[in-house]
Amino acid sequence: MKNLLTGQENTWCPGCGHFAGLSAIHKVIEESDIPQENFVLTYDIGCSSNIAGYTKVYTLKTLHGRSVIAGAGVHLANQKLKVISFAGDGGTMCEAPNHLIHCARHNFDMTFIMQNNQIFGLTTGQSTATSQKSAKTSSQPYGTVSRPLNPSLLVLTSGGTFIARVFSNETAKVLDSVRRAINHRGFSFVEILQPCVTFAPTAFQEALKLKKDLPENYNAKSYEEAFKYLSDKSAIYSGIFYINEEEKTYIDNIYYENKGENLLDVKPVDISHLAKELFY
Amino acid sequence: MKRVSIKIAGAAGEGIKTPGVIIAKALKRCGYYTFGYTEYPSLVKGGHNTFQVDISDEKISSSKSRTDILLSLNIKSLKKELQNVEDNGIIFYAGKEQDLAKESLDNFDIKCVDTSKIAESAGGTKIMQNTAILGFLFGALGVSLDVVKEIFKEFFGGNPELLEKNIKVLEAGNKAYEDSGYKKINLNFNQSEDSKNQIVVTGNEALALSAIASGVRMFSAYPMTPATSILTMLAKFGPKYGMQINQMDDEIAVIQTCLAANFAGTRALCATSGGGMALMSETLGFAGLSETPLVMIDASRSGPATGIPTWHAQDDIRAAVGNTPSDIPKVVVAPGDAKECFEDLKDALDISEVYQIPVILITDKFMAETNYCEDLDGFCVKEINRGKLEHGEVEEGFKRFDVSNNVSRRTYPGVKNGYFVASSDEHDEYGRSIDYDPIRNKMMEKRMGKLNLIERELRDPKFYGDDSADISIISHGSNKGPILDAIRELRRNGAKVNFMHVEYVFPLKKGPVMEFLSNAKKSILIEANYSGQFGEVIRQKTLMDVDEKILRYDGRPFFVDELVKKLEVLL
Question: Model pTM?
Fold first, then answer.
């Protein structure tokens, strides 16, 4: 049995939506056959990431917006590791959606769990790029001016190969999505819609009103179906939208010698032959 | 000592750089010392590109500003370059007599070579006119075509048809010279055996070789002049040596993946120019705080902002030394030639791992794209030092950031019990974020204390010239080459001159620099930027000012003849 607790204090508000992702990831790491030291969690800045160090695994707590690209770097160095990146909607969709787009495009074999509460919580309640238009926040008190981005749809159209969107109060579904995301080969994305109980409690309540389950006969292998259900503005569907197991990963596609090994063997290399061949 | 400069000029797309490198390699193989310098605008077709090869009977490490032999591939380039030709210089124009008349250039002594006709009648295409003029030049210089053909084989070896055509055009160009009745150009140089054991290599190429040799397993980059050729060379050859090359989608992705890969236990490297470094500066701070090794190459160019992208400057010294908010330990090293690029990158990678700090290796456009002649023997890495990197398993309760030592043991994912948080937050000994806590001071002191250790360990600046001198030059980076050539000339003329070449710009070795400046009758700072940025670093560390500054910020490097004149005024 893995002991995942470090004894670090949890500083989230009681009832915080972030607990959904945390308990799912603990469960998944505990039940996994993969050794504890081969898991890497990456975080950035914000409430979503104030949990860095709570879980006893190798952890990279990087700069705002950079969690997923830092996770990509860890994965590129050593494919034996299970890399799971966490971040919120602020860092991901405001500061650096470019990283998300390209990580999906490259199909890095890693998991990104984006916890979307539609607000900057740690800085006490400013609009993010997923806040609803007209939502009143401390930075846009007369109503959020612009329309929100749709993260899961963005990942789908950017080339992500596993896309789930779930609500934080659907405990079993969150766990199932995270578990399957981590076992997916390729870039897997789980968007957890969740409340910020302190600074945006109503945004989540409004979202819940639009919540619908995907239909029984839904085909997650179909890009077109995923596109249709993720684009639907009349409802917020919850479930696993897309699984593409055919697409090769970045590491499958790239060429370098001894690719099967990780990049940990660092030693001097004799380049005299190359120098002579090119520059004599 | 003799020096002759040969310049090939033409439009982008006409092929200037390849013939330039072929001239440098061919003359080197004939036993001359060569030095190749290129200028080009930021465009793909058209404009005015040049490649100048200086040749000598002694090792040289600079260009002169004047041209002895000009090869111009078009009339526009000819008109631009005429003013740079020495009074008794020789001019070959790849075109017809009537072009000269049209441009009222008939009063100049310009030898026309109808290269398009030569190329086409030898079965080549018009674009091979650069090959035709090479054949003509080597005829005039009396260089055996066998040497040139060998080099052609190396360049075009993968494409036998192209090789055969180019060789035919080369021979036709050579025959056109024989038929022309023009006088031979007698270089009248001593040929040396030494130069035959040398390679013709740019700063960027030396860095790419060093990256492979020093065990770099991942290279991430986003293209930016003048750093791009590190990427393109490593992209081609790195994978054959097991190096993973990642063209990331912006500079922040580049440096984040490098930092994360180093966190994961490998050796990663990235390269950019000033604008890219500005974007990367936040992550450099993160590397300093999280004590993650990280080496960045900054090939600086003429700024600020986009500046003049394909031109030379040493504009990034201040930014490299001080671009991160708060205080982090770091090293900034500015190698002086291609060989030092190779050595200093190897050392930068070791220093970065041994002290767990970011290191910026700073070069410039001149160094990055200039073809130096260097001894092949120097291009060898025997061992590398990864510092306190733990493998396999460590004890339970492992403290990654143990404050009892400035440099603590480092683990990476996969090492049993070695868990830690590499955090951008201030943290405790396990890496966990802290708030107001006395450990903050201990962590800051742990990290910043590394600078004293490093300053003690770093190599001293290099000293050249007379012990007692009338003028004492202090400089860094690629200025080394032009300065060494200039002081050799001055000293031959009887002047007493010395020179301190500082590779480690930060942390500056206070002792030797203060001693040098204290002993100087007249100290002179030489730099390619507006404000004398390295002078500020010296002033900050030593509270000493230099007496004179020779600064240049027009986009060109220091040419030896111009530098000699400027220094003579100060003697």
Answer: 0.97
